[in-house]
Design goal:
transmembrane transporter activity, 400 residues, Growth Hormone, Chain: A, 0% strand, mainly alpha
């Protein structure tokens, strides 16, 4: 088993603790969203637009996040993003109209647009190519751990009022932002880019155009299509479980908690083993196939145990996907880790913009349609991996 370098363990611990607290706050919000939206007489379409507003902001600001992480250092961007998380959750807590909810989610998207590329670049800085997938796995596991405890905690706090979890999430975000002060900076001034931002092309459109020329462009396409499909599950699951199964917030919390536990086990103990045994491309291919099958299983209404099994299958193979593709992108990024991480987040946020919009609209037509659509998109990403493998092998990049 490949281990992280000794020098990487303390900053990785602080980074994981930071992300754990941030996602603990976010996890508290998921099971109570259907009840919260009822205050605004809203349903699946609004849920889709809320997630899309988040993704749109992330799409617009990810190029800045990636470029600034290379130009000003990782730590400043991580801290800025965390403070915006605090503001976003607080506005969501005090909102009395749908426009305020959209503003809150847009600010939340800005926060991730600035923070995620810096986080990914930070992990790349403190790992070697051999331990990169493992580092990305730890990155994902810390977020999943927050999702394990978050839903149950959110359900308990909601007993004091449906808005209370959002206030608590804001407070936890502030704690995480302050913890970032303990992180050492991994990009010394001498290695930072000095090119003015306007010459690099700060707009998302410009960055996407320039991304066509990078050697890992095909992996970015996989990120886009994969995220488009996965968001069909993530956007409407709480509404899906409530409408199709009449599950309560506490039952939905159990399903999400179980899934997050599975994700932690996979990303900490199994990811590195499977990458070593199968290689990244084959692991991505198997994961895309199994997640699409799991989505289709969820359409079959049996009972809670059956849905738990289908969800377990989905969460297990979903946990392989993001860190594995991110690791491949990072390996081919050279000394432009922030830029590559920004592209990674940009393409992911494109899927986060349009996936929820489609999922929300389809949900209001029929509760099953988002999952059929999601399975179709994941199978499309599976077909794309075949093209990627041929292309990257021809250039000597494929990782088998």
């Amino acid at each position: 088993m490949r281990k992280l370098p000794q020098s990487a363990r303390f900053p990785m611990f602080i980074l994981m603790l930071n992300l754990f607290i941030a996602l603990l706050g976010q996890g508290m919000l998921i099971p109570i969203l259907p009840e919260y939206l009822k205050l605004f007489h809203a349903g699946g379409t609004v849920a889709g637009f809320l997630v899309a507003a988040f993704g749109a902001a992330q799409f617009l600001f990810s190029p800045l996040g990636g470029q600034w992480a290379d130009r000003f250092g990782r730590k400043k961007l991580i801290m800025s993003g965390m403070f915006l998380v605090v503001i976003s959750d607080f506005i969501f807590a005090v909102s009395t109209s749908l426009p305020l909810l959209y503003i809150a989610r847009f600010i939340g998207g800005i926060s991730l647009g600035l923070m995620v590329p810096a986080n990914l670049a930070y992990v790349a800085d403190i790992t070697t190519p051999e331990t990169r997938a493992k580092g990305m796995g730890y990155f994902g596991a810390s977020m999943n751990l927050g999702m394990v405890l978050g839903p149950g905690l959110g359900g308990l706090i909601a007993e004091m009022g449906v808005r209370m979890p959002y206030f608590v999430a804001s407070g936890l975000g502030l704690v995480a932002a302050l913890l970032t002060l303990l992180l050492p900076e991994t990009l010394p001034p001498g290695k930072r880019t000095s090119t003015p931002t306007n010459k690099q092309g700060i707009s998302s459109a410009t960055q996407i155009w320039s991304s066509f020329k990078v050697p890992y462009f095909n992996y970015l396409l996989i990120i886009l299509v994969m995220t488009f499909g996965l968001m069909s599950y993530e956007t409407v699951f709480s509404l899906f479980a409530e409408n199709k199964y009449s599950f309560s917030a506490s039952t939905i919390s159990i399903i999400i908690t179980m899934g997050a536990i599975i994700g932690i086990v996979v990303q900490i103990w199994l990811l590195d083993v499977f990458v070593k045994r199968l290689g990244e491309i084959k692991l991505i291919r198997w994961s895309l196939m199994m997640t699409s099958i799991a989505l289709l299983f969820m359409l079959i209404k049996v009972n809670l145990i059956f849905l738990l099994c289908a969800s377990a299958l989905y969460f297990a193979f979903n946990a392989f996907l993001r860190p594995t593709v991110s690791s491949l992108i990072s390996k081919h990024a050279g000394d432009r880790q922030g830029y590559a991480s920004g592209l990674n987040t940009t393409y992911s946020s494109l899927g986060t913009v349009f996936g929820p919009l489609v999922a929300g609209l389809l949900f209001d037509i029929n509760v099953n349609l988002p999952y059929i659509f999601g399975a179709f998109m994941l199978l499309a990403a599976l077909l794309l991996t075949m093209k990627v493998q041929r292309s990257m092998r021809g250039n000597g990049y494929a990782s088998e």
